[in-house]
Design a protein that fits this description.
The protein is an alpha/beta fold and about 400 residues long. The chain has helices at about 15-35, 60-65, 115-120, 135-145, 160-165, 185-195, 230-235, 235-240, 250-260, 275-280, 325-335, 370-380; strands at about 1-10, 40-50, 70-75, 85-95, 105-110, 125-130, 150-155, 170-180, 185, 200-205, 210-215, 225, 245-250, 265-270, 280-285, 295-300, 310-320, 340-350, 355-365, 385-390. The chain has three domains: about 1-125, 60s Ribosomal Protein L30, Chain: A; about 130-205 and about 295-390, ACT domain (Alpha-Beta Plaits); about 210-285, Periplasmic binding protein-like II (D-Maltodextrin-Binding Protein, domain 2, 3-Layer(aba) Sandwich), CATH 3.40.190. The strands form four sheets. Strands 6, 7, 8, 9, 10 and 16 form a six-stranded mixed beta sheet that branches. α1 packs across α2, α9 packs parallel to α10 (about 275-280) and α11 packs antiparallel against α12.
Length: about 400
């Protein structure tokens, strides 16, 4: 097997840790997606940063992506007149049998001017399935995680996004699993039980609901508001306060698209600002969600799990025997090892009336010694267990006002 080099570069907005790490991570994710690169096939990575950037941070992006066993080298470039400012370059040494003309180099943002002949090679977009139509919040989550050059593939139902990954039509799927206000998306958890996809990552999206209507409509003229049931639930107080009747629909963006195609008097929709731009609707009111800490959590699904990151979370499903203390003993496996539980929720088993399944999230990777021991202990005490995946833990975005609401 030959060791070949994958070259890449990206511009950075500012000389601070967050900006450098974010830009470098986006570059590395594009390189991985463009070449179907596996971390175990990397022989090493060399980073360089222009003198106006701190050269200590690019490698941290790789470590946070789980490249913990890949040799990394960081260097500061010499000052060169007329060089591109605030630029990070990377050379990934890849063990592969591919010929040189099939290697995809990636140049992002301002760095495209360095090699315009190679910039297009990085545009072999990653295909990601989501439920809904163009402008849906799930598509926003896709773009937030994968970047603007991702190819979003709309699907009619949540089940369809699972089938899209299983049939290799897409590489990933974006699955909404819970909202901080309205709670869990029950169908998503049922589908996770029915299918064998792995959780590749989690994404937390700040949801900002807009009240939209056809051009020229006044808020006082509205009678009914259509949207996905989750969106209606997240704006319930606003709807009651304005005397608007909620009308459940297929999804948020689809409601807007249909109203734009077939205008109706007295009808509004709840959707995103992007949807208003896409379908030519007028924004009657902004940020109408009842609570400012309105976040939706998504799982990125794939056929295979991701490499281990520095901060991980694990999700699994289990059942217990129907006897006193069974659940207490199962959870005790984690408590004794001081493993923090991030979530536990019960759902009825569809094939067994009055029996329940427990969905559990905990901090750590399933291969960490203490976590592995807890899972083995749970396996001995439970009647069924299914590991959904260990994946990099996401950070909740900070609201525009810089204040994180708690409670």
């Amino acid at each position: 097997m030959t060791c070949r080099g994958i070259r890449g570069a990206t511009g950075v907005d500012a000389n601070d840790a967050d900006a450098i790490i974010t830009a470098t991570r986006e570059l590395l994710e594009h390189i991985v997606a463009a070449n179907d690169l596996l971390v175990e096939d990397m022989a090493g990575v060399i980073f360089t940063a222009t003198p106006d950037l701190d050269a200590a941070y690019p490698a941290r992006a790789a470590r946070e992506m789980g490249w913990v066993h890949v040799p990394l080298l960081c260097m500061q470039e010499m000052a060169v007149a007329s060089s591109l400012p605030r630029c990070v370059r990377v050379l990934v040494f890849w063990n592969t049998d591919l010929p040189p003309d099939q290697i995809r180099h990636v140049y992002l943002g301002r760095a495209r001017v360095l090699r315009p002949d190679l910039a297009e090679q990085g545009r072999r977009m990653t295909r990601v399935a989501f439920q809904g139509v163009a402008g849906a919040y799930s598509e926003q989550a896709v773009r937030q995680f994968f970047g603007p050059e991702v190819e979003s593939v709309p699907c009619r139902t949540l089940a369809d996004i699972f089938f899209a990954v299983e049939s290799h039509d897409v590489k990933y799927a974006m699955l909404p699993v819970e909202n901080a206000v309205a709670g869990s998306v029950n169908q998503s958890y049922e589908l996770l039980m029915e299918h064998d996809l792995r959780i590749h990552a989690e994404v937390i999206l700040r949801v900002r609901h807009m009240l939209l209507a056809c051009s020229g409509t006044q808020l006082s003229a509205l009678k009914r508001v259509r949207s996905h049931p989750q969106a209606l639930a997240q704006c319930q107080r606003y709807l009651v306060r304005h005397g608007l009747e909620p009308e459940p629909a297929f999804d948020t963006a689809g409601s807007a698209r249909d109203l734009a195609a077939n205008p109706e008097a007295g009808i509004g929709v709840i959707a995103s600002e992007l949807v208003a731009e896409l379908y030519g609707l007028e924004i009657l009111d902004r940020d109408i969600e009842d609570f400012p800490f309105n976040y939706t959590r998504f799982f990125v699904l794939a056929l295979e799990g991701p490499p281990r990151a520095q901060r991980n979370k694990t999700s699994l499903v289990f059942t217990t025997s129907h006897q006193p203390g069974a659940l207490y003993e199962c959870l005790g496996e984690f408590a004794r090892r001081r493993i923090n539980l991030a979530k536990i929720e019960s759902r009825p088993r569809l094939n067994r009336p009055w029996q329940y399944i427990f969905y559990l999230d905990f901090e750590g990777h399933c291969q960490d010694p203490e976590c592995e021991a807890a899972i083995m202990g749970l396996l001995r005490r439970s009647s069924f267990i299914k590991l959904l995946g260990s994946y990099p833990a996401a950070t909740t975005p900070v609201p525009d006002n810089g204040v994180m609401a708690l409670g």
